[in-house]
Amino acid sequence: MMNQTLPSNGHGTNGDWWRGAVMYQIYPRSYQDSNGDGIGDLQGIVQRLPYIASLGVDGIWISPFFTSPMKDFGYDVSNYCDVDPIFGTMDDFTTLVERAHQLGLKVMIDLVLSHTSDEHPWFTQSRSNRDNDKADWYVWADPKPDGTPPNNWLSIFGGSAWQWEPRREQYFLHNFLIQQPDLNFHQPAVQDALLDVTRFWLDHKVDGFRLDTINFYFADKALRDNPALPIEKRNANIAPSVNPYNHQEHIYSKNQPENLEFLQRFRALLDEYPATVALGEVGDAQHGLEILGQYTAGNDRIHMCYAFEFLAMEQLTAQRIAGVFNQLDQVAQSGWACWAFSNHDVMRHSTRWNLTAQAQRLFATLLMCMRGSVCLYQGDELGFHEADVDFENLKDPYGIEFWPEYKGRDGCRTPMVWENSNLNGGFSTAKPWLPVSHDQLPHSAKSQEADPEAMLHHYRRVIALRHAYKALARGKHDDVRAIGNVIQFVRTEGDQVIFCAFNVGSSPALIPFPPGKWDSIGIELGCAGISADGNLYLGPWQSCLALRR
Question: How confident is the model at residue 242 (pLDDT cuts 50, 70, 90)?
Fold first, then answer.
């Protein structure tokens, strides 16, 4: 049985605090409204920091709160160095950082460097003519002789990735919305300006950055056409299946080798500020793990990255998990991954994989036992399923474009439900910017606090377990294999060895137990105990964790 006093995993405030850390993602529009306008804000986050600290996480990642026209709800930045008034002020941000640090929480913010808003002063100047000081700060190209776009690149949000600008009689590149023009990273002045932005926030005491679409920074200088992707290789990991974006292999519109030099410049800046870190989002359906390995190799690039393998629609079977980790061992031996099952861009995993409450608990335990760092998305800890948002209430341009085959991202962005005593779930005193899910109201944070068997307390226990054992937080990840519906592996750090097995199926499973002397741990999480006959019996959606003596 597990000892009552958990051991220390040595996870402190040293420079590699991020290795094995658990970060909690906050989508600020939907977390807590403090001023009654129906939109969450920074002061609302401050109010909820004690709740976040009570989860046992190491820090928070806050999605964009910079000045923005909100065409893509903050991922279209018009001023990198200020807070949008709907979220508050710079003083509010300072208060947030100070209070988080008092509670022992790190603060990471979302930097969107690959593109700006079309209302950013840089773009306003760049689009005015071909001769101004910022004329080449964005990706501009002449039309083909017949007036059509310069190549076949497509936007993730649908249609061509090129938009005509009559003032220059040229096209500009936008990998996302038309209102999100791509910066030209081949121009050193652009890199310098973005590093100045990074330094601004480092001077405001942030502990690190989540780097949006990190593999989109550079486009091919020659603007070569992307090749077609064979139909058997298409999947919907990055874009929904109804999007023609899936018909290309995007080898020229992103993933360029020049990006490594910029990441080295970025890392050198972070190294001037001890213990600050960078987490990159790798958006690629075919080569995500390889890029993760490239970007996190050595000590002069990005600290950690996450790809979309576990954010995909595809069911997370034992074979799929083993395949991901075995591939990762081949392409990222010296790198470091960060794992998430849900975030602000994908359907919540409980709905995506049609999980029961028991299965949700199993996957939460699995997530905390995998090698790498972890990001939880707000509401994961409450077991939220995807909210159903009617078309007339949609705000996401992505969902509006592809409705009804793809309903967009609003279903995972509805407001947090803090209590079930009013229609707005304790989120706001006004009509929220997106409707509160009535299906989520019974699962509010307040109601779960009062129930020791609730999902919220399971997450607290499993986070505590991860932090208690250095092998789970930071150890090696060996012998990853699938036996039927069971995924098993061994985590090792120094003299601490932990065997992990997870039945990710709805039928009982029987597998051999490794030889040696072991003590069961995680019994309070519903983990199976050790059998005396040398076999391991796992019920549906049950795990077993054992510490070698």
Answer: confident
